[in-house]
Amino acid sequence: MVALRIGDIRGFTSRLFVRETFDRLLVREAQVVTYNAFTIDGRIRQGYYTKDEIEAEGIGEFSRWKAVRPLCFALIRGKKLPGSFRIEFAADPEYTEQFVQAAGGSWRADMVKGLYLGVRYENGGLLCVTGLSLTVFTMDKSLEYQWDEAVKAFLKKNEIIFTEE
C-alpha cells in the first residue's frame, strides 16, 4: 500500500470527472459531500439488468466509473468546491487476471481478491491510496509492490503529478 499526494488537484479532478481516464475502473463505493452527503454503492443490483444486457455489455458485480462518473460530476459541479469526496475503485476481473499473470512467480489469479485504488479529497488535499486484497496469507509483498508501481505508472502516463507520502 502506498499513499500518493496529488499535486495538481484541478488537473486530476478534470481527468477523474470530465475525461475518460478512469472509466475502466469499477466503483465499489463513492461518497460526495456538498450540501448533503451522497453515498453510492457501486454494487449492481441483481435483477435490474436482463441476462442479455449483462452478456452484451459485460456487466459484473460493480458498476464501471464510466456509468457513475456523470452522476458524481453533477454532484460536485457548481460554484462551491465539495466539502469532500471519496471513491473506492477496483480493477476489473479481466485486468486483475492479466496483472497477476504478468507478475509471474507463484502468483495465481485465484489468490487475489482485488486490486484497489482509493481517491480521497478533503481539507483541500487529494490523496490516492493503493490496496491489494488476497485470498491467502503470505509474507510475500511482491505483488503489492508491483500494484503500487503500476498505479504510479498509470498516473505518470496520464500526466498526473504526485508525491509519495
Sequence-ordered SSE layout with sheet pairings:
Elements: E1 3-6, H1 9-17, E2 26-33, E3 37-41, H2 51-57, E4 63-64, H3 65-76, E5 84-90, H4 93-103, E6 112-122, E7 125-134, H5 142-157, E8 162-164
Antiparallel strand pairs: 1-7, 1-8, 2-3, 2-4, 2-5, 5-6, 6-7
Folded structure, characterized:
With 165 residues, the protein is an alpha+beta fold. It is built from five helices and eight strands. The protein has helices spanning 9-17, 51-57, 65-76, 93-103, 142-157, and strands at residues 3-6, 26-33, 37-41, 63-64, 84-90, 112-122, 125-134, 162-164. Strands 1, 2, 3, 4, 5, 6, 7 and 8 form an eight-stranded antiparallel β-sheet that branches. Strand 6 (112-122) and strand 7 form a beta hairpin.
Largest sheet: 8 strands, antiparallel
- Portion of residues within helices: 25-40%
Please state the overall shape, judged from the principal axes of the Cα atoms: globular
Distance between the termini: 11 Å
Kindly state the number of beta strands: 8
Average pLDDT score: 94
Please give the radius of gyration in angstroms.
Answer: 17 Å
**Helix-strand makeup class:** alpha+beta
Low-confidence region ranges:
none
> How many helix segments?
5
- Give me the strand/helix succession: EHEEHEHEHEEHE
Beta strand %: 25-35%
